[in-house]
Design a protein that fits this description.
The complex is a heterodimer of chains A (364) and B (386).
Chain A: H1 8-28, H2 31-36, H3 43-52, H4 71-83, H5 90-102, E1 112-115, E2 123-125, E3 131-139, E4 146-152, E5 158-164, E6 169-171, E7 181-189, E8 193-196, H6 203-233, E9 237-238, E10 241-242, H7 247-275, H8 282-310, H9 321-331, H10 338-352, H11 357-361
Helix pairs in contact in A: 1-3, 1-4, 4-6, 5-6, 6-7, 6-8, 6-9, 7-8, 8-9, 8-10
Chain B: H1 14-32, H2 49-57, H3 76-88, H4 94-110, H5 113-124, E1 130-133, E2 149-153, E3 156-167, E4 174-180, E5 193-199, E6 205-210, E7 219-230, E8 234-235, H6 247-254, H7 264-273, H8 279-307, H9 313-337, H10 348-365, H11 372-382
The chains are: A alpha+beta (364), B alpha+beta (386).
């Protein structure tokens, strides 16, 4: 059966990595427990367990200090992280390690994030090798010890750099999901290490890798929203019956299943496309941007239905629904929103021309 | 909740891409020869028997069926490629589409051997057209309320009653229909219906065309008066038709025809906008392309799971639910996006005509072959809500 190019051995080890992540999340990132822990005492044990399992540096080769997991294995960890709406910088550290590894820069221990995190922001390499620029909406910048930075010089050549977070100015902000989303300013910061990016590696590549990570997380969060909404509808009684027995509620949940399914299909397909890509062509671009666009659209529609099914209780801080719904909505904005990527995709489609649209869509 | 939804990232195998080239070359030849106009989506109004025979000659009908019945023992993913290329090209598939997708597989499963040997090779040659007799004047979505009677007589059954909304009945050679052989029981209201193979164009059957809002006469009322069906035309279990429609429905629900019905307006919008779109057009087109890409990935995924012998019933219903709503909304989104297209766009008139037709077609897309409401009921059952 042609499930992409995955051999059984790879598919199997992917499950083991994902299962390890699932188990850690289930033990140490239970939404109910976290929601009642006002002091954030759950964070340190969770991060320690993830680190011991080698997950934050999953995408870093062993000779660069990581655990050398495949792209596919790492993507499956992100799906699981989405299902638990994990609020530690796991995805961000994975992306940072992956970025540094592109230039064979070894990853340090501890939390990291990537700069910039928006296609609109630019970090520049100055003549003396220092870095300058401002990046908005950088997830978890405030708690990160290091940044993996993608910067370009006056000629437009890209470099990848490891930067000490304490050398940068950080204006903390809180995003829609309640997690840090900060502004990072670099003013002639000398990096810890810097190397040229490999040929063809540019900012859209980084943004799309981040975008696919967010798409997988959104799809995972939608899976959980569907599950807890179905469960709640089978428990809650109104008008003397379970609300799951009302056709209007059933149809809403069927629509939520549809949005969850669309997000899952788009994100999984994009992850598979990137994991197996030999070059970053129009077809891989379509896979990646379509995942970000469609998952973001699904987040809006899906979160609205999940809240509708829950009624007032789902609108409370005490209930866990917001952990998934608000994060899914917040993740839309990272690494380029769906509007941004839709414009880019639309331009590409128009430049290719009307008769080249179907061949692009039906390319695999 | 039952099992989690699955949409494995299935890719079409390399041999499909060779096949795709062959199908595109064939369609280009037929377009050049004037067999059909890809810009005119009036496929349903057009019966083109020669086209049907040529598709059969190419080996693209009954692709997955056993060779002894004229089939080609190829995969469902190969059939998928042929179906989507024909659909996107607006090819006149009306004559063979139902037989190839639905009727043939039912015969393969339930018809006696001599009937299979007689009819299936003719479907594969593109010679015969099938209709499906499900709805009646007072039973549509509620299939099991069907009243058209099949009364036992010597050597067969006498049929009396009326089927309605029967697509292609006016050109069909055969119909596969459900008729009432017994009353429903108290325990099971679905009991008592039997599936039959009906030979059309015979005395005792009257086909009355029904005009549609698109201006077409594609569906019909079919009146049976003491029409005789021999015993060997019973398909499957007497009174047990309700058991026979499970997994094959997944094929029917999740194919490319469930989201590409109005696709042509998107192609034409891109042509009208040109290669330097403004931000509004670019965003609108980008979103629609991301959406159709996602639909296709979902649909291919279900096809791959079916090929692997799985039964993704809920996933298939989801594909049809969101796919038909997407193709229904598409002409309206394209209409909005084309509001500021330059007067000088060379295909402006083509786009306007296509939009007119697609907007008229749109309402039926969420009704035919299982309404949105019925599909959501199936999905809800799969989620453990019913």
């Amino acid at each position: 059966m042609p499930i992409s190019n995955l051999g059984n051995a790879v598919a199997e080890s992917e499950n083991i990595v994902a299962e390890t992540a699932e188990k850690i999340f289930a033990d140490l990132a239970d939404a109910q427990t976290i929601n009642h822990d006002k002091k954030g005492e759950w964070k340190a044990p969770l991060w320690q367990a993830l680190t011991e399992a080698g997950l934050p540096l999953a995408w870093v080769p062993e000779d660069c200090g990581g655990s050398g997991a495949s792209l596919a294995e790492g993507f499956s960890v992100l799906s699981a992280a989405g299902r638990f709406a994990v609020a530690v910088p796991l995805a961000e550290t994975m992306l940072a390690g992956w970025l540094l590894a592109q230039a064979k820069i070894a990853s340090p221990d501890g939390e990291m994030t990537v700069v910039p995190a928006s296609p609109k922001d630019r970090i520049t390499v100055n003549a003396d090798g220092s870095l300058s620029g401002r990046a908005r909406g950088v997830p978890f910048a405030k708690t990160a010890k290091h940044f993996a930075v993608l910067a370009s010089d006056a000629k437009g050549s890209f470099s990848i750099a490891l930067v000490d977070a304490s050398k940068c100015r950080i204006e903390a902000g809180i995003g829609l999901g309640g997690d840090n989303s900060d502004t990072v300013t670099l003013d002639k910061v000398q990096p810890v290490a810097t190397k040229p990016a490999p040929g063809g590696f540019d900012q859209p590549r980084l943004m799309l890798m981040g975008g696919v990570a967010r798409a997988l997380q959104i799809a995972g969060a939608l899976e959980s929203m569907l599950e807890i909404s179905v469960r709640y509808s089978n428990e809650r009684v109104a008008f003397e019956k379970k609300i799951s027995k009302f056709q209007a509620v059933q149809h809403n949940l069927a629509r939520l299943a549809g949005e969850s399914a669309a997000a899952l299909a788009a994100a999984t397909s994009a992850a598979d496309a990137i994991a197996n890509a030999t070059s970053f062509d129009d077809e891989v671009f379509l896979e990646a941007v379509a995942a970000k666009i469609r998952c973001s659209e699904a987040a809006e529609k899906g979160a609205a239905i999940a809240h509708q099914v829950h009624g007032a209780i789902g609108f409370t801080v005490e209930h866990i629904l917001h952990r998934y719904s608000l994060r899914a909505l917040a993740w839309r904005d990272d690494f380029g929103s769906e509007s941004y990527w839709a414009v880019e995709l639309g331009k590409l489609v128009c430049v290719r021309g009307a008769d080249e649209l179907w061949p692009l869509v039906a390319s695999r | 909740m039952t099992a989690a939804l699955r949409f494995d990232p299935i890719r079409l195998p390399p041999k499909c891409e060779q096949l795709r080239k062959e199908v595109r070359a064939f369609l280009a030849e037929e377009i050049a020869a004037g067999t059909f106009d890809p810009h005119k989506p009036n496929r349903e109004d057009t019966d083109v028997p020669e086209f049907s025979r040529k598709v059969g000659e190419r080996g693209w009908l009954g692709m997955t069926w056993p060779k002894k019945y004229g089939g080609h023992e190829r995969s469902f993913l190969e059939r998928y490629v042929v179906t989507e290329e024909m659909r996107v090209a607006n090819a006149p598939t009306r004559r063979f589409f139902v037989a190839d997708r639905q009727s043939g597989p039912v015969l393969l499963k339930y018809a006696p051997e001599h009937i299979k040997m007689e009819i299936l090779p003719r479907i594969c040659k593109g010679e015969i057209c099938f209709a499906i007799g499900m709805s009646e004047p007072n039973s549509g979505s509620d299939l099991f309320a069907a009243k058209t009677r099949a009364t036992k007589t010597d050597g067969g059954y006498l049929i009396n009653g009326t089927k309605i909304w029967t697509s292609s009945a006016h050109i069909a050679d055969y119909m596969i229909a459900i008729f009432r052989t017994s009353p429903p029981t108290k325990e099971n209201r679905r009991h008592g219906l039997t599936q039959f193979l009906v030979k059309m164009k015979q005395p005792g059957i009257q086909v009355n065309p029904i005009g549609q809002i698109t201006g077409q006469y594609e569906f019909n009322e079919v009146v049976f008066t003491d029409y005789f069906v021999p015993d060997d035309h019973v398909l499957g279990e007497i009174d047990g038709a309700w058991k026979q429609a499970t997994s094959e429905l997944a094929y029917e629900r999740s194919g490319p025809e469930r989201f590409l019905e109005t696709y042509y307006v998107l192609t034409e919008l891109v042509r009208a906008v040109g290669n330097n779109p403004d931000t509004r057009s670019a965003e609108g087109i980008g979103r629609l392309v991301a959406q159709v890409h996602t639909m296709r990935r979902m649909s291919v995924s279900v096809a791959g799971m079916l090929q692997a012998g799985k039964e993704p019933v809920v996933e298939a219903s989801i594909v049809k639910d969101i796919g038909t709503i997407w193709e229904q909304q598409l002409p309206h989104r394209v209409r909005e996006l084309s509001a500021f297209v330059e007067e000088t766009a060379t295909n402006r008139e083509t786009l306007e005509k296509q939009l007119d037709f697609a907007i008229k077609t749109a309402p039926k897309l969420t009704i035919q072959g299982g309404t949105t409401e019925v599909l959501r009921g199936i999905i809800a059952r799969g989620l453990g809500l019913r």
